[in-house]
Amino acid sequence: MSDQPAWPDDFRAGFACIVGRPNAGKSTLTNAMVGQKVAITSDRPETTRRVIRAIVNRDHGQIILVDTPGLHRPRTLLGERLNDMVRDSLAGVDVVVMCLPADEAIGPGDRFLLDLVSQMNVPIIAAVTKTDRVGRDDLAAHLVEVSEMAPFVDVVPVSATIGEQVDVLAEVVLDQMPDSPPLYPRDAISDESEETLISELIREAALEGLHAELPHSLAVTVEEMLDEQPAKGDPDQRPILRVHASLHVERDSQKGIIIGKGAARLKRIKRDARKGIEPLLGARVILDLHVRVAKDWQRDPKLLGRLGF
Ligand SMILES: Nc1nc2c(ncn2[C@@H]2O[C@H](COP(=O)(O)OP(=O)(O)OP(=O)(O)O)[C@@H](O)[C@H]2O)c(=O)[nH]1
């Protein structure tokens, strides 16, 4: 056994915060950098409600990523808390990565966010996301426009879905990190509890294909996780984890939407969520889902607390 530390002398580690307006590609980029699904992606804006930390491990460095919800004007208590969460997550980070989608013009929302982030006195890297959606000329023009927006330490074009330039971005982020030993175990990818990751996966499955207002009205809590033995003679002898979870909605009509005709939607939610959860836990999962109506939970501080906000 050697008593040499298990990381090189020039190891860097620190915190990076990914910001960007709704739908800018923050969660997808987080997952691509980690190389595994840890954050929730959705094609509906503002679905990321939790500030999820993910951990990017490289041979010579470790980036602790903080994924922020999109900034928006507060409308409900939940909205105000969201904005507080964004500001909190910006405090104490070593570098901010600002996502600006290549296929959309820079707008007032981006400038608002940039102003906010610029007050934090940390280096800002611009990640021009979704580059696979535009041609070379448009991308070049967009990159120039972004460079002129602010004194970014770097502007990195990246496509998280096809994995282009993701490693380059990680290197540029690491360049801004202090010399430091690893801050988390080097095989960790997230400091979120299993319960949180599971409830996010259920929430994502439940929101699939739904419209407008429901994302803000749905919260998921994991009530209980129980180990079970497979039945004798069951051809699948993997260990079983039974997960009891509640889906909280605000109205009876929303309950109906989630459950669907003949409970068909609920069945699909179970199936889709299980697909994400089983590889995460390395176990066979049985999901018991209960849909509950909690009127105005977004405005009830007690209920918000119980739901983890
Ligand atoms: N073509 C393409 N689509 C992308 C890329 N990155 C993200 N998307 C898509 O853009 C949409 C939004 O991506 P997200 O990662 O959920 O965006 P976000 O910024 O986390 O969104 P909020 O949670 O609303 O703040 C999803 O439909 C993604 O699949 C990319 O590199 N290329």
Describe the structure.
- With 309 residues, the protein is α/β, with parallel strands linked by helices.
- The chain folds into 2 domains: 12-175, P-loop containing nucleotide triphosphate hydrolases (Rossmann fold); 194-306, 2-Layer Sandwich (GMP Synthetase, Chain A, domain 3), CATH 3.30.300.
- Helices cover 34% and strands 22% of the residues.
- It is built from 10 helices and 9 strands.
- It has helices spanning 26-34, 77-90, 108-118, 136-147, 166-175, 194-207, 214-217, 252-259, 264-281, 301-306; strands spanning 12-19, 52-58, 61-67, 95-101, 124-129, 154-157, 219-228, 240-249, 284-293.
- A 6-stranded mixed β-sheet has the order 2-3-1-4-5-6, sandwiched between helices. A 3-stranded mixed β-sheet has the order 7-8-9.
- Helix 6 runs antiparallel to helix 9.
- It starts with 11 loop residues before the first strand and ends with a helix.
- Guanosine-5'-triphosphate binds next to helix 1.
What is the global morphology? globular
Q: Largest sheet at a glance?
A: 6 strands, mixed
Counted up, domains total 2
List each distinct ligand once: guanosine-5'-triphosphate
Give the C-level CATH assignment of the largest domain.
Answer: Alpha Beta
Looking at CATH, the homologous superfamily of the largest domain is P-loop containing nucleotide triphosphate hydrolases
Kindly report the spatial arrangement of strands forming the biggest sheet: 2-3-1-4-5-6
Number of helices: 10
In the CATH hierarchy, the architecture of the largest domain is: 3-Layer(aba) Sandwich
**Element-level helix/strand string:** EHEEHEHEHEHHHEEHHEH
Distance between the termini: 46 Å
Assembly type of the chains comes to single chain
